[in-house]
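Private note to self, pasted from the team thread so I don't lose it. Backbone tokens:
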């Protein structure tokens, strides 16, 4: 099973306590029993969180919980560290309107949040924006996944800005980051590469920084972690997922290389993190000097000037930009949950 896998034969013993191992991690040259594997992953998450200074007493992290294995593993490990640091965590599930897949994901996300003692804010795109993601895509004549990405990013940022959060935590794992990095390299897209560190900075009032607690945790490790921890997650894949996404091919190729060169992926991630400032410089130069984020003239959140991509997208799909209206709906939702002043359950 690759990094966390089948080479853990029944004869193998946990490198920490000597109990029967369930997992062998070649790049760490260690085998683990369930308990010590969980600790191994939690330590990696903790190191990233500390390096980024992500947790502070009375701080707040908004966690994107899609109901998949990565997001629930991220949430479980994040919550452990956040409790120790005195940081609050709020889970957000975005109901995209993808039929049975969305309802299954929602059940898993709510159950995971409930089990971990984290409030779960469910945001329906249809209610907040006025149309589901596939409907927006159809009306805007854009691919569903690209619309989905714009909508999810905007909603998470809008919630985090309203709540004054320190970070939005995402379930991207090390394999996702490396796949984006190879894609960014192939396209020589320095702006994308510059956003591939474990965290991006916040821009006050406009954008809350994004955090990747699973930066050094690989896809198969998040699966084993979720299974060992008994976390609920949806095994199904989104029906709109492209058949052969480039990222998939890149991940397969890197996994094959990792088998013959254990440690290749983890060192690539560490080098990538160090190279982020260089990519930032290149991206700024290519943009003709300082790139300054400006408030969108409709919703007030981050844009490159004029309207943000969410307001442009909704203008195209619905005839008018939905940013201001959607922000108001989000405020109402947060108030009704007692998470914002001015009303609610609390
Ligand atoms: Fe959204 Fe596409 Fe991912 Fe489905 S596969 S959740 S439509 S980005
Ligand atoms: Zn052990
Ligand atoms: Zn906008």
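Design output:
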């Amino acid at each position: 099973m690759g990094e966390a896998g089948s080479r853990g034969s029944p004869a193998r013993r946990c490198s920490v306590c000597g109990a029967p191992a369930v997992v062998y991690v070649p790049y760490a040259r260690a085998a683990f029993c369930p308990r010590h594997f969980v600790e191994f992953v939690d330590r990696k998450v903790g190191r990233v969180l500390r390096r980024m200074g992500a947790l502070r007493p009375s701080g707040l992290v908004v966690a994107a919980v899609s109901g998949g294995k990565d997001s629930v593993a991220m949430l479980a490990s994040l919550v452990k560290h956040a409790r120790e640091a005195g940081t609050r965590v709020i889970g957000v599930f975005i109901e995209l309107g993808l039929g049975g897949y969305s309802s299954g994901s929602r059940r898993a996300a709510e159950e995971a949040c409930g089990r971990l003692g984290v409030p779960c804010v469910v945001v329906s795109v249809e209610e907040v924006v006025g149309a589901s993601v596939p409907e927006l895509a159809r009306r805007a004549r854009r691919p569903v996944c690209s619309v989905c990405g714009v909508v999810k990013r905007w909603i998470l940022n809008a919630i985090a800005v309203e709540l004054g959060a320190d970070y939005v935590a995402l379930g991207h794992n090390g394999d996702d980051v490396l796949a984006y990095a190879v894609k960014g390299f192939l396209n020589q897209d320095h702006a994308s590469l510059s956003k591939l560190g474990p965290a991006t900075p916040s821009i006050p009032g406009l954008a809350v920084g994004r955090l990747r607690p699973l930066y050094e945790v690989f896809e198969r490790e998040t699966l084993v972690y979720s299974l060992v921890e008994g976390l609920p997650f949806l095994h199904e894949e989104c029906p709109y997922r492209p058949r052969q996404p480039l990222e998939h091919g890149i991940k397969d190729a890197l996994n094959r290389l990792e088998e013959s060169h254990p440690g290749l992926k983890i060192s690539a991630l560490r080098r990538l993190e160090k190279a982020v400032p260089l990519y930032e410089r290149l991206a700024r130069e290519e943009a003709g000097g300082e790139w300054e984020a400006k408030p969108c003239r409709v919703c007030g959140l981050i844009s490159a000037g004029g309207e943000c991509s969410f307001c442009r997208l909704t203008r195209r799909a619905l005839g008018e930009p939905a940013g201001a209206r959607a922000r108001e709906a989000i405020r109402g939702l947060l108030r009704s949950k007692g998470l914002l002043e001015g009303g609610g359950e609390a």
